[in-house]
Amino acid sequence: MSAKKRYSTTFPPLRHLSDQKVEKGLAHRAKLPPVIKKLVNSWKNEEHFNHISPVSLPSDDAIVALIHKARSILFPGYFTGTKLHQSNLEYFIGQETSNLFEMLVAQISMAIRHDCQRHELPCTNCDELSHQVAVTFIERLPQVLELLTTDINATLAGDPATKSPDEVIFCYPGLLATTVYRLAHELNKLEVPIIPRIMTEYAHSRTGIDIHPGATIGPGFFIDHGTGVVIGETTIIGQSVRIYQGVTLGALSLPRDAGEKLYKQKRHPTIEDNVIIYANT
């Protein structure tokens, strides 16, 4: 009888392979400290921008979460996994509103404190002021809801392609941009620093629609398609206005010193009631 053939399996030395990977990683990692030192030293130069300070800036992630929370209150049942009915609606709205209040206080407080530091002002009542502003903003939510209802109805009346209010609320970029604008506009009127712009720039990045929170927009506003729409800070828009994609309600480009002279002065168009502005105007 022939002897059984023996098979042997040889594995490469594991230690050798792992050592090679570690050595390669260490060799590349060794190049990082000089770059880190160069970056740190660059921020000693006042020409470079940084925020190295014990006073925190508002968090853009937290502000986006704040937008989502406000939308869940304004449109209950649309942007939450919770099943709602009349028996639990008040509890749900109460819980969401309480959470929104806490989120607002935290972010507004940071924004106000940072503004005080930037202008070298004493911050003696920043905490109390942030609470006052937060509750005033929440008190205005019913008015924001009324305006958004007119915006949804304007969309339903103005776009034959839409099938239902659900489609408008879930899908239409114009309504998302308008919702964020109307929320940011209230904070802007309350003179909250930086947060309103973070909010509208989030909507801009999501929709391609750039609405400055300082603009004044009446009820029944409808942006169709929306990509490329720009609405400047001092724009005034009446009621029942419809705007299509590519419309710019802007101002001339001005030197910085001229812009400062015109700060809060009227420099953007006024659109009267019942106007339609077609694409790329």
UniProtKB/TrEMBL annotation:
Keywords: Acyltransferase, Amino-acid biosynthesis, Transferase. InterPro entries: LbH_SAT, Ser_AcTrfase_N_sf, Trimer_LpxA-like_sf. GO terms for molecular function: acyltransferase activity. GO terms for biological process: amino acid biosynthetic process. PANTHER family: SERINE ACETYLTRANSFERASE. This is Serine O-acetyltransferase. It comes from Cyprideis torosa. The lineage of its organism: Eukaryota, Metazoa, Ecdysozoa, Arthropoda, Crustacea.
